[in-house]
Amino acid sequence: xxxxxxxxxxxxxxxxxxxxxxxxxxxxxxxxxxxxxxxxxxxxxxxxxxxxxxxxxxxxxxxxxxxxxxxxxxxxxxxxxxxxxxxxxxxxxxxxxxxxxxxxxxxxxxxxxxxxxxxxxxxxxxxxxxxxxxxxxxxxxxxxxxxxxxxxxxxxxxxxxxxxxxxxxxxxxxxxxxxxxx
Length: 182
What we know:
Strand order of the largest sheet: 1-2-3
Number of strands: 3
Oligomer: single chain
Structural class: mainly alpha
Largest sheet: 3 strands, parallel
């Protein structure tokens, strides 16, 4: 894994994403981080340690069901774990991703994170780090950006939406969600 895969500061993000947009290749940006990622990271801990999943399910499934797009009327917990397995597979295929929770930003973009949110120690730190290192190692062309590049919206000159307004004019762009029928 090369440190050149984790792109910051924001003006460098701007230039790197600009070159991706100018390319003739298809491009899909992933978002890695948030409560769904926290659930996945803890699930990896439980799964890889052969621990009982009941505690994990009780703690994380209500959050994921409420905030992260896991909508299933079937109360069978196996469906929740299938969702997390699918999420992990999607993360592992990422070639361009925005990292967006304090854990990942603290690990990979501490200089881009507001110091009030930086944390040197947090739950499952080693697993957060390991997952991203595995993704980066598996795909040496993968690039990771701090999510605050997106959150800045139109504030400042080095923002994602300023790039979109210039480079997507006259091009087709799709926003989609992967949906698996059960």
